[in-house]
Amino acid sequence: MAAALSRALKLPGKKGSELGEYDPLTQADSDDESEEDDLVLNYPRNGLGRDSCLGTGSSKLRGGRSGRLVGAEDGVQDEDEDEEEDEWRERLPSKSRQDRNDMKGVQYWSHRDSDGERKREDRGGPGAMGGAGLGLHSSDEQKRLRVKNAIRSAFFLVPLVCATVVVLLCAFLIPCQKGDLEKRLQWEKALGGTGGVTPPALALWDVDGDSVEDVFLGVTESTNETHTTQIYSAVALSAVSGKVLWKKVMSEAVMYIQCGLQYSTVPSPVCLLICKSYIMAVNGTTGNKLWSSSIKSIESQAVLLPDLQGDSHPDLLVATLPADDKFDLSLTLISGETGALLGRAVPFNVTAQGTLIGPWLYETQQGVYYILFGLGNVKAVSLRDIYFQATGKLPETQALRKKDSGWEGMKKDNFSSIIQIYSPRDHDQARFLLPLVAGFGRNHNNLDTASNLNSTRSDWVLVYGGSVQLLLRQKNLRKKWTFKTASSQSQPVAGHFNSDGILDLFIQHSSNGVMKTLIIDGANGTRLWAAEFVCPHLRIETSAISTSTGQSAFLFWASDPIKAQKNVTKTTVSPGVAVAEPLIRKLYLLHPTYPTVLLELASTTDTAVTSAVRYQDHQKDASYITVSSSTMPNSVPSTYIVKCVSLRAAITKGQTVWIGDGSKTAGALKPGEVSKFFRHLTFRHQ
Fold it and tell me: 508-512: long-range contacts at Cβ-Cβ below 8 A with a sequence spacing of 24 or more?
């Protein structure tokens, strides 16, 4: 290969085996390449390394071409190449050939000296630097190599260790923090209020940005030992720890607390504190007053209305009902931005006497708004007419000026603005009217736009006398079905008991020491589930919570379940028999998957007066919040106790209670099947 390259470049050929001949290509390699490159090039060429087992063998083995072992085949090739080179030299001019001969010896010995020097250095022998110098040089190189290796190892191991630490943190530390959070979300706090059977105002809303709804309460406190002087206040409690976020002293007892208003000038949510003679808007985070509006004889919660004035803020409406019979039920409009009254109160001559119904905002299929209200009956008045009677002008928004011909045709005459929805017969007065919306309740009637939109466009449930009716929105609130039952003292609760996607109704009523509970199919008004319990003497709403199965879990208070005796229709508790004191009240959880099983989550002798449920999305959990009136000795007025319980934690400690034919069903179930189901049950938003 070298000979061919030499002929192509027209340069002197490859050095032969005789002394004095040299190869310019080899010489160039020797001058330019590093010591390590020379070793690499010579190793395959020699067949054996200079530091091989041959060591410093005979000159015959190291002679010839730099001590290379020459085989027979190599010898023949070299002779052919030498003959070709001799012919090429003969053709050159004599002067050039002479010049090359003059330089040949010098270059050859220079090449041999450098080559020998390198050989001695490789074998550790004495060279130009001496044996000792080369040993030190090799030791320094080894140290540098070790340092490089250490650095490379560090660059590899440090990221590996960091990644391992991160994995361990994610696997162990974060779950521990989550568990710690679940523990902190369970708390109990005694307030200095004077407890009683009247439910205090209760609302839930997240105001501190931790994605968990905080607790708002209206509290009545005593300032002396005789409890003759009282102070009224509104208190906000942290959802995580139960600590007081803020407390505001009021001149009257707070009847309702509603949160969710949004102002462009206030970054925090706004809450309304509704008393008997005034409404105050406060910053939900700090409790600072934003505005106050004086309105006498307030009887209802506030209703969120569309913007009536064109100021880009929703407005409000409340119902007032003076104690004096000379005055009628009135509807009052309030500016949602400033709290100023919009015109005058609009009175309505409501002849019936009974429970206050509403007021509620309702939107027809044509997009026209009506207010539903009444006293033992249900009436409707268009929002357009109310605003016109209060201010003498039409709403600023064109959409609110429309009329619904279908609804207007239900008026008795053209001179009346009232539409009759339900009129009582005999003693069947209307007791409850509520939108058929999941999660809706007394303590979950906030003023956010989303909740308001869902309720105004839903079907409605009417409870009167001993009947429950479903009123359909698409049929102008005409009934779809009617279910006959005993008179209900508590508001129905909507939830999914079966899997048809239609909300069902949980209702309860008590008589003669027995509490009866029913679940009615929302599709056709038939009974889906029923059970009887010893009456707990409580008037507290049931709660329905959406679960991971797509169905709802129902939470309700009762005493021990009543089991029917064999071949006997009467219950184990005779009517009229007083229940022994102290009465144990128990919190039960019912899930449709196992309708004959109840999970007892808590038991107490305290009187629960109100409750609410909130969700914890990150933990897939829900908290059950109760306000109880604790029993105090020596006739001392009781105090309110607020308790927050994690439902998943309560389920793990709950006791299984079989009802109805549950004992027969239990034999068909696998051991631990029910417990396993409830342990894996999670909760989600409606």
Answer: 508/542, 508/556, 509/485, 510/535, 511/486, 512/575, 512/576
CA-based nearest residue to 679, from 650, 657, 645 = 650
Closest CA to 259 of 305, 215, 312: 215
Most confident among 315-324, 415-424, 590-599 (mean pLDDT): 590-599
- Amino acid making up residue 60: K
**HSE toward the beta carbon, residue 604, CA cutoff 13 A:** 18
Residue-level pLDDT at 183: 55
Q: Are 380 and 359 in contact (CB under 8 A)?
A: no
The answer to whether the Cα torsion of 3, 9, 15, 16 is positive or negative is positive
- Which of these ranges, 210-219, 293-302, 528-537, has the smallest mean pLDDT? 210-219
pLDDT tens for 354-404 read: 889 999 999 999 999 999 999 989 999 999 999 999 999 999 888 899 999
Q: Quick one: pLDDT at residue 399? A: 86
Strand partners, 435: 460
- What pLDDT score does 174 carry? 59
**Is-contact 100 12, C-beta < 8 A?**
yes
Task: Give the position of tokens 């030992």.
Answer: 225
Q: What is the pLDDT of the chain when averaged over all its residues?
A: 77
Whether 458 and 503 have beta carbons less than 8 Å apart is answered as: no
| Cα distance between residue 628 and residue 634, in whole Å | 19
Spatial CA neighbour of 30 closest among 92, 112, 133, 135: 112
**Long-range CB contacts (< 8 A, 24+ apart) of 177-183?**
178/618, 178/619, 181/240, 181/619, 182/619, 182/621, 182/646, 182/648, 182/649
Cα 89-93-99 angle, rounded to 5 deg: 80
Give 355: exposed, middle or buried? Use CB within 10 Å, 0-12, 13-18, 19+.
middle
| Nearest CA-CA partner of 248 in 298, 286, 215, 199 | 286
Please count the residues of the chain.
686
Which among 142, 141, 121 has a CA at the least distance from the CA of 130? Answer: 121
pTM of the model: 0.72
Q: What's the one-letter identity of residue 99? A: D
pLDDT in tens, 542-551: 999 999 999 9
Band of pLDDT at residue 103, cut at 50, 70 and 90 = very low
The Cα 526–Cα 530 span in angstroms is 11
Edge to edge, the sheet with strand 187-190 lists 187-190, 640-646, 621-629, 607-616
**663 confidence band (pLDDT: 50, 70, 90):** low
Residue 223 is predicted with a pLDDT of: 64
The rounded distance, in Å, linking the Cα atoms of 532 and 558 is 9
Facing residues of 530 across strands?
Answer: 518
Domain range annotation of the chain:
301-484
Tokens of 99: 């010049």
329-334 sheet: strands from edge to edge: 303-305, 315-320, 329-334, 346-348
Distance (Å, rounded) from C-alpha 282 to C-alpha 267?
12
DSSP 160-226: HHHHHHHHHIIIIIHHHHHHHHHHHT-EEEE-SB---SSPPPEEEE--SSSSS-EEEEEEEEE-STT
